[in-house]
Specification:
The chain is about 85% helix and about 5% strand. The longest helix is centred in the middle third of the chain and has 108 residues. One of its GO terms (biological process) is cilium assembly. Its main location: other.
Length: about 130
């Protein structure tokens, strides 16, 4: 078989009989690699879009969780303050009850004293009437 003088010089003909510097096999592999690289870049771009959307979703959920957490803390604090208010009100009412009991006792003692005075005055009046 005769040697291909163009092949030895690094020149080759393709399927359309165009003169090429690269061997047809190398050219074909280069084109395949280029297509694979383009597919890879497209897939990476899609992946970045998906990850970006996921990050946005996670950020939104984190904000919602933080909002709910703040609401829960506010509700808990409100419940604590209501409990303290009830406790203070209960203490005030107990103090008022004690005060009213003391007042009742004073009125009872005063009533007994007035009843005694009334009885003494009635007895005095009866004795005074009987003396006349």
């Amino acid at each position: 078989m005769a040697k291909d003088p163009l092949g030895e010089a690094g020149l080759h003909f393709d399927e359309l009989n165009k003169l090429r510097v690269l061997e047809p096999e190398v050219d074909q592999k280069t084109r395949e690699l280029k297509e694979e690289c383009e597919d890879f870049v497209d897939k990476i771009s899609q992946f970045q879009n998906v990850v970006g959307g996921l990050i946005e979703l996670v950020d939104e959920l984190a904000k919602e969780a933080e909002t709910e957490k703040m609401k829960a803390i506010g509700a808990r604090n409100l419940l604590k303050s209501v409990a303290k208010q009830r406790e203070a009100q209960q203490q005030q009412l107990q103090a008022l009850i004690a005060e009213k009991k003391m007042q009742l006792e004073r009125y009872r003692i005063e009533y007994e004293a007035l009843s005694k005075v009334e009885a003494e005055q009635k007895e005095f009046i009866e004795q005074f009437i009987l003396q006349k």
